[in-house]
From TrEMBL, chain A:
Main location: mitochondrion
One cellular component (GO) term of this entry: mitochondrial matrix
GO BP term, example: lipid metabolic process
Biotin carboxylation domain: residues covered: 42-479
Organism name: Funneliformis geosporum
Top-rank taxon, per record: Eukaryota
Cofactor(s) this protein requires: biotin
Gene3D superfamilies per UniProt: 2.40.50.100, 3.30.700.30, ATP-grasp fold, B domain (3.30.470.20)
Places the protein is found: Mitochondrion matrix
UniProt name for this protein: 316_t:CDS:1
Annotated ranges, domain ATP-grasp: 161-358
Record-annotated Lipoyl-binding domain positions: 604-679
GO MF, any single term: metal ion binding
From TrEMBL, chain B:
CC per GO annotation: mitochondrion
Subunit structure comment from the entry: The holoenzyme is a dodecamer composed of 6 PCCA/alpha subunits and 6 PCCB/beta subunits.
Stated name of the protein: Propionyl-CoA carboxylase beta chain, mitochondrial
EC number: 6.4.1.3
Length: 683, 576
């Protein structure tokens, strides 16, 4: 099924938040580092074998280079932004990715139907699948990425370690080989000592990865990791290695052409992770000095040269406090966090990849690579921030932050628009938000501002109504999870002042009648303004009634004026909900009288939910670990629910006897659906 | 002379309640809790007090007593139930200091059963008027602490007085109901009082908006006053409405049922449809009633009110273009459509938990109140059934009475089939909605978002029912029925019927092949789109969803002074 999309339709579908020209948003790609002649032809038409934000990202560069684009989409993505942006779009199958975005025959068919000359795989999906590269080679289509052989050898974590060792790269102690079964895993774990990490041989991105601190966790983790690996990558092989506690994750970006030239670009630090998945990245790293940087770069380049690597790739290292670095893996694709490297080097990595695939030669030398300033990237996931669970539904409100100065300090690489569906089938990453600054502080400050003014609201089930902004607070700051910002004296003052101003403005609005009766009321209005004493002298709030962003200025005594963005989320029956510092607060505003009388209002008893286990999110049941009549201990595994490729173990919150099980493996469950019920406890 | 109008307020009840051990007024005054506030002029006489001062002092004492209602003990009992007193409620409802009270000193005149020795000033109801955000409304609030809020002759007359005044000047009446029922000692006088109120409810209907807040028990004959008013709101866990209480139900029907199950907020907002909304507690209920009044014109002589807004009338919402799922069998939430069209996304939904297959409520567009009626595809595909027809019909008639434009969003697959519906009178009840739309003379704007099938297309404010502006989105499907069903009927006589039937029985192929073929080629073009209706002028325009708000607001301006000649009749004969 082929769909040709006319330009006019595209324009109509284009949401307001979408910025058509990549250059407008990112820092100069007119940079002198790139000595390519714009007239040198690359391809006429390329197909992007991906979806979401990365597909949109590639399409932007292709458009800039005058290349026609073909998007592929599954049934669930027919209205995706990448489909609207591309010149042509081809449906490749039903929503599950193994039937669409991983469906090689259908994608090959799409390439042939549209006459695309090359394929950019983005990341994830087929980007590291050497079979795909091989099948493209067979029909003479260029793959915008590394060659099949290099990909196959580096993509496999076990083999890549052997190669790294051969190329003279430092490696971590571990077992170089596939783990056969649980017993084997236990044996290896014992021989290298706890903690150990179990990870998918084929994978990346934190999926199929488990850390085990004891035998029990190895047994449990082995099962889950191999299942996850199987469903994510179609390969359940695992390997085991020593887990380096408290490491820094630093990676080197490489670009290599087909003529044996390999350049290493400045490093990215991706140490803030959650479930071993990167959340915040920055470039450069504060941890590296120029000597280490050079040593890491040279080792990385040596590895690439050793296997004849071509295109963009990334070598990941773990760096300890003494700046000893160990090879972790090589990613044979464009990385999610590539925008920060682009920010500080001024390079367009996607453009480089396309030119390399079109047999062009890198015109730069290693000495030409310089970098300037600092860049930070946050990944924006559709998630419940307190539970780290995917939030699925319609993006009811979505406004991206924009650069406030002509430095283009804010860049949004997103694949959604207001009204998009966040589907259960794919990764919940909806945007990569990058900011730039002359210094690290400035970049972080810009990031804070951008996050504060990023409006995301997902309409899903009641418990998951809020969209998440994964913020700077993760990682070490929140070992037990994000429970929201605890208000201190200052932030309470800020919130309360803005809430007061919002209330006053709403209250005045309630009196502001525009029909005939208004004359009488205007008097009443001015009287009210006079009699009430608001702290206008020091707090100003700029807010269009009921809109999302409240820009407020604070001047506390003789301090400098401070600008704060607070979000207005929703009106409540009495009061409203505001978001300050990434946390939502329900604010009740009572009149004097209401406050006086509120003491008589009774607290309504809440429904006791401890007797039942509810599905935390929409998804499918993978397994049920208990039977009716079983007595389970607190913390015992009850069931596993999978959504968005993440398996979540549901555990008993207390000791109890299982009364009834409402679901069976394979069932689809909605959020808050009752899965297991316990008997009334006798004690 | 003394200035009678300038008596300042006595101390508020809640602060008094801290001194619950004090019971008599004298004690209160002595303990300096309740300060009699009299603005006295410097004494002109050598000694003694003037006659005026004497009367004033008595008035002051009576007023203080009236403010105490049934006394501190009963006030405390009321508070312990999580309920506020009648006076506290009125003060919350009205703008601070705006209450002008009537009949503060009224007492009952009953002498039987020792009632002549048992009088409470005010007789169990507070009446008067005041403002809500500056707009005049009349109010009565029954006081459960005084004779259990029971209705005596004088109590009824106080209510009648404000109802008459409200009609006279054209202002809404809000009744805060909290009453044990009829004052049994007064016998038929009490019943007469109810009837007097009912009569006024009926006469006021369609003249001024009438709103009932049920904030405590409301049983027996008393329930019919709220039933006659335009909107009934309840407070969860503390309010009950029933014709006969659990005891009688037990005696007559041998059914065991609690007050809450029989006539609580849940029963009436989910099952019976008697109440239009329920709120958590007294404070929230009253605050939301204030918000609600803001939507209504003060009487049928006024246009819908216009309030300031920052939401641009020309705002285009591009995400609306994607709101209808690509798969036409997939549901979406009509409330998402509504909140994107209206000002600030603020929608006051009426009866949100009853007959959820239709969504009704008030909103504003460019500041002016509009009413919204929308089929809800999320529930039973948005089908029209008995309950949803009745729910929407009464709402449409209210809006027509009070000059509130009606915006109808249509996605309806038809009327619900089945014996349950037919035998319970879907014909009769469906006719109510049809009647209400056909009769309405206010601006009527209709947007077909997806399905508009069969008779339900006609009913949902179609062009043929004097619809002013009828739009369809490109996703509209206007037809007698869905494509598949249509084929089965249209081609029923294509061949000799017996032969077709025989063949059908033979291999079951002929008919299904024919259907599949026709459906694939032709029917989507003939039926599943808005073009045929637009070609006939039944649809004024096919518009992009994103511009719907802009277009509706423009149309509302055009239709602002719409007038339709009304044929004289005594009154109509709406199907009931």
């Amino acid at each position: 099924m082929l769909r040709q999309i006319g330009r006019l339709v595209i324009n109509q579908n284009k949401p307001t938040c979408y910025k058509p020209l990549f250059c407008q948003n990112a820092r100069g790609f007119h940079s002198t580092y790139i000595a390519y002649n714009a007239d040198v032809k690359t391809f006429d038409k390329i197909l992007i074998a991906n979806r979401g934000e990365i597909a949109c990202r590639v399409i932007r560069t292709a458009k800039k280079m005058g290349i026609k684009t073909v998007a592929i989409y599954s049934d669930a993505d027919a209205r995706g932004l990448h489909v609207a942006m591309a010149d042509e779009a081809v449906n490749v199958g039903p929503p599950p990715s193994n039937q669409s975005y991983l469906n090689i025959p259908n994608i090959i068919k799409a390439i042939q139907e549209t006459g695309a000359q090359a394929v950019h795989p983005g990341y994830g999906f087929l980007s590291e699948n050497s079979h795909f590269v091989k099948s493209l080679d067979e029909i003479g289509i260029s793959f915008i990425g590394p060659g099949e052989a290099a990909m196959a050898s580096l993509g496999d974590k076990i083999q890549s370690k052997i190669i790294a060792k051969e190329s003279g790269v430092n490696i971590i102690p571990g077992y170089n080989g596939v783990v056969k079964d649980t017993d084997h895993a236990l044996e290896i774990a014992k021989s290298i000592g706890y903690p150990v990490m179990l990870k998918a041989s084929a994978g990346g991105g934190g999926k199929g990865m488990r850390i085990a601190w004891n035998d029990q966790e190895v047994i449990e983790g082995f099962k889950l990791a191999s299942q996850e690996s199987l469903s994510s990558f179609g390969d359940d092989r695992l390997l085991v290695e020593k887990y380096i506690d408290n490491p820094r994750h630093i990676e080197i970006q490489l670009i290599a052409d087909k003529f044996g030239n390999v350049l290493y670009l400045p490093e990215r630090e991706c140490s803030i992770q959650r479930r071993n998945q990167k959340v915040i990245e920055e470039a450069p790293s504060t941890h590296l000095d120029s000597i280490t940087r050079k040593a890491m770069g040279e080792q990385a380049a040596a590895l690439a040269k050793h296997v004849g690597y071509v295109s963009a790739g990334t070598v990941e290292f773990l760096v300890d406090t003494q700046r000893n670095f160990y090879f972790l893996e090589m990613n044979t694709r464009l990385q999610v966090e590539h925008p920060i490297t682009e920010y500080i080097t001024g390079m367009d990595l996607v453009e480089q990849m396309i030119r390399i695939a079109a047999n062009q030669k890198l015109s730069m030398k290693q000495d030409d690579i310089k970098f300037h300033g600092w860049a930070v990237e946050s990944r924006i996931y559709a998630e419940d921030p307190e539970k780290y669970l995917p939030s699925i539904g319609r993006l009811n409100k979505y406004r991206e932050p924009v650069s406030m100065t002509d430095k283009n300090e804010v860049r949004c690489d997103s694949g959604v628009f207001e009204g998009s569906e966040i589907s259960i089938y794919y990764d919940p990453l909806i945007c990569k938000l990058s900011t730039y600054g002359e210094t690290r502080d400035e970049a972080i400050q810009n990031m804070n501002k951008a996050l504060d003014s990023y409006v995301i609201k997902v309409i899903g089930s009641s418990r998951f109504q809020s969209g998440n902004i994964s913020t700077k607070f993760l990682g070490e700051e929140y070992p037990k999870g994000f429970k929201g910002h605890a208000l201190n004296k200052e932030s309470l003052y800020e919130l309360a002042s803005v809430a007061a101003l919002v209330h006053v403005k709403k209250d005045l609005r309630n009196w502001h009648w525009l029909d005939d009766k208004s004359a009488l009321l205007k008097n009443a209005l001015s009287e009210r303004i006079k009699t009430e004493n608001y702290p206008n002298a020091i707090v100003k709030a700029d807010w269009a009634l009921e809109s999302s962003l409240i820009n407020s200025q604070f001047q506390i005594e003789n301090d400098l004026e401070k600008t704060i963005t607070i979000q207005y989320i929703d009106p409540l029956p009495i009061g409203f909900r505001l978001q300050h510092l990434g946390t939502k607060f329900d604010i009740t505003v009572h009149s004097q009288k209401q406050h006086e009388l509120s003491q008589y209002m009774l607290e309504k008893p809440k429904q006791d939910l401890s007797k039942v286990i509810l599905s935390p999110m929409p998804g499918s049941v993978i397994s049920i670990e208990v039977n009716v009549g079983d007595i389970v201990n607190e913390g015992a595994e009850l069931a596993v629910v999978e959504a968005m490729k993440m398996q979540n173990v549901l555990r008993a919150s207390r000791v109890g006897k299982v009364k009834k099980i409402y679901v069976k493996p394979g069932d689809a469950v909605a959020a808050d659906e009752i899965m297991i019920e316990f008997e009334e406890s006798s004690s | 002379m003394h200035n009678f109008g300038s008596f300042t307020r006595l101390l508020n009840c809640p602060s008094i309640s801290r001194f619950s051990h004090i019971t008599t007024l004298k004690q209160i005054i002595n303990k300096n809790i309740l300060k009699p506030v009299i603005i006295t002029q410097p004494r002109r006489h050598a000694s003694g007090i003037t006659k005026e001062e004497k009367i004033l002092a008595r008035v002051e004492e009576m007023r203080a007593q009236a403010h105490l209602g049934g006394g501190l003990k009963r006030i405390q009992a009321q508070h312990n139930k999580g309920k506020l007193t009648a006076r506290e409620r009125v003060e919350l409802l009205l703008d601070p200091g705006s209450l002008i009270e009537y009949d503060t000193f009224v007492e009952h005149q009953c002498t039987d059963f020792g009632m002549d020795k048992n009088k409470i000033i005010g007789d169990g109801v507070i009446t008067g008027h005041g403002t809500i955000n500056g707009r005049r409304i009349f109010v009565f609030s029954q006081d459960f602490t005084t004779f259990g809020g029971s209705l005596s002759k004088m109590h009824a007359l106080k209510i009648c007085k404000v109802m008459d005044k409200a009609m006279l000047v054209g202002a809404p009446v809000v009744g805060l109901n909290d009453s044990g029922g009829a004052r049994i000692q007064e016998g038929v006088d009490s019943l007469a009082g109810y009837a007097e109120i009912f009569q006024r409810n009926v006469l006021s209907s369609g003249v001024v908006p009438q709103i009932s807040l049920i904030m405590g028990p409301c049983a027996g004959g008393a329930v019919y006053s709220p039933a006659l008013t335009d909107f009934t709101f309840m407070v969860r866990d503390t309010s009950y409405l029933f014709v006969t209480g659990p005891d009688v139900v037990k005696a007559v029907c041998n059914e065991d049922v609690t007050q809450e199950e029989l006539g609580g907020a849940k029963a009436h907002t989910v099952l019976s449809g008697v109440a239009h909304a329920a709120f958590e507690n007294d404070i929230e209920a009253i605050q939301r009633t204030r918000d609600f009044i803001d939507y209504l014109p003060l009487s049928n002589r006024e246009k819908a009110p216009v309030r300031f807004t920052d939401d641009s009338p020309t705002r285009e919402d591009l995400s609306l273009n994607h709101i209808i799922p690509a798969d036409s069998t997939k549901a979406y939430d009509m409330r998402d459509v509504i909140t994107r069209l209206i000002d600030d996304g603020i929608f006051f939904e009426i009866m949100p938990d009853y007959a959820k297959n239709i969504v009704i409520g008030f909103a504003r567009m460019a500041g002016r109140t509009v009413s919204i009626v929308g089929n809800q595809p999320l529930v039973s595909s948005g089908v029209l059934d008995i309950n949803s027809s009745v729910k929407a019909a009464r709402f449409v008639r209210f809006c027509d009475s009070f000059n509130i434009p009606i915006i109808t969003l249509v996605d309806v697959p038809g009327f619900l089939p089945g014996t349950a519906q037919e035998h319970n009178g879907i014909i009769r009840h469906g006719a109510k909605l049809l009647y209400a739309y056909a009769e309405a003379t206010v601006p009527k704007i209709t947007v077909i978002t997806r399905k508009a099938y069969g008779g339900a297309y006609d009913v949902m404010s179609s062009k043929h029912l004097r619809g002013d502006i009828n739009y369809s989105w490109p996703t509209g499907e206007i037809a007698v029925m869905g494509a598949k069903g249509a084929v089965e009927i249209i081609f029923r006589h294509v061949e000799d019927r017996t032969q077709a039937e025989n063949e059908y029985i033979d291999n079951n192929k002929f008919v299904s092949n024919l259907i599949n073929l026709i459906v694939a080629i032709d029917l989507t073009e003939k039926f599943a789109n808005p073009v045929p209706a637009a070609q006939r002028g039944f649809i004024d325009d096919i518009i992009l969803p994103s511009v719907t708000r802009k277009r509706i607001i423009e149309d509302l301006v055009v239709l602002e002074n719409k007038q339709l000649p009304i044929i004289y009749k005594k009154h109509d004969n709406c199907p009931l």
